[in-house]
């Protein structure tokens, strides 16, 4: 998240434009707003980045485009072909910030890797984090890669000592712990499958996710469901600030935690008498 802020600080002046999908990670929008940039929010198409519309929205004032792939909190992606065509049409004056926070969860060959676009010398800053599959969220450590001149620009606005030694040591060790990554990916896939089966049985609208959470929609204000679940000891996430007032983002946990959530959800829906399908 620190690199998102640094990118906005380095590349945005008041009045510049930053393009972001409506429904994307809200911290990027906040960072652009802090810089007094004009935030151009592009509606998603079928809950995915509308890359054609993003391209069409670029003006001489556009300095930065933020793409989270997968989108947080939707869990959807754009594929390799779509992103390649998008990058090939991008004007040179625009920097793409490609946030791959959940990339390690994805095994699909159709998932585009930012490293490929970096190797092709595109104007791109690729972000990764140790807060997700590596489980180091409390250490607040991540990394990014880009062309040398982009990194040099970011270094001009970076505060010194923004990553402590303990976090750096843990991050380096985590990179070699392939067994943990593989096991976490397996647990995540099994948990998502469990959620999908139950959401389908309950006739709830949900999105198949490439991340470690699932977006699920209801027919009532999601705060009602959130509050009841919380009283039952289960914490989810409302996503009203993303434009989805009746949806929750549910993180995937270990099997006992997933079962506890589903049991609490069934009890909550029965209490609220919610049983009808919730489409978009």
Automatic annotation (TrEMBL):
This is Aminotransferase class I/II-fold pyridoxal phosphate-dependent enzyme. SUPFAM superfamilies: PLP-dependent transferases. GO terms for molecular function: pyridoxal phosphate binding; transaminase activity. CDD domains: AAT_like. InterPro entries: Aminotransferase_I/II_large (IPR004839), HistidinolP_aminotransfase (IPR050106), PyrdxlP-dep_Trfase (IPR015424), PyrdxlP-dep_Trfase_major (IPR015421), PyrdxlP-dep_Trfase_small (IPR015422). The keyword Repressor does not apply. Keywords: Aminotransferase, Pyridoxal phosphate, Transferase. The keyword Transferase applies. Coiled coil: none annotated. Residues 4-265 form the Aminotransferase class I/classII large domain.
């Amino acid at each position: 998240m620190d690199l998102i802020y640094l990118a906005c600080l380095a590349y945005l002046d008041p009045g510049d434009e930053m393009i972001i999908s409506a429904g994307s990670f809200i911290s990027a929008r906040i960072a652009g707003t802090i810089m007094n940039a004009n935030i151009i929010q592009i509606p998603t198409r079928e809950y995915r980045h509308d890359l054609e519309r993003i391209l069409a929205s670029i003006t001489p004032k556009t300095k930065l485009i933020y793409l989270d792939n997968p989108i947080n909190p939707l869990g959807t992606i754009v594929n390799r072909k779509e992103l390649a065509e998008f990058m090939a049409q991008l004007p040179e004056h625009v920097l793409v910030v490609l946030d791959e926070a959940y990339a390690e969860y994805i095994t699909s060959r159709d998932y585009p890797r930012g490293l490929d676009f970096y190797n092709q010398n595109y104007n791109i800053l690729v972000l990764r984090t140790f807060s997700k599959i590596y489980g180091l969220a409390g250490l607040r450590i991540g990394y990014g890669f880009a062309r040398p001149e982009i990194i040099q620009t970011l270094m001009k606005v970076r505060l010194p000592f923004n990553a402590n030694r303990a976090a750096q040591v843990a991050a380096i060790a985590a990179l070699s712990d392939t067994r943990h990554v593989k096991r976490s990916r397996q647990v995540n896939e099994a948990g998502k499958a469990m959620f999908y089966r139950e959401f389908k049985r309950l006739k709830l609208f949900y999105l198949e996710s490439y991340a470690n959470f699932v977006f699920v929609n209801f027919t009532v204000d999601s705060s009602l469901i959130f509050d009841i679940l919380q009283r039952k000891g289960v914490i989810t996430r409302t996503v009203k600030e993303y434009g989805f007032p009746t949806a929750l983002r549910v993180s995937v946990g270990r099997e006992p935690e997933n079962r506890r959530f589903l049991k609490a959800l069934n009890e909550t829906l029965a209490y609220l008498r919610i049983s009808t399908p919730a489409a978009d």
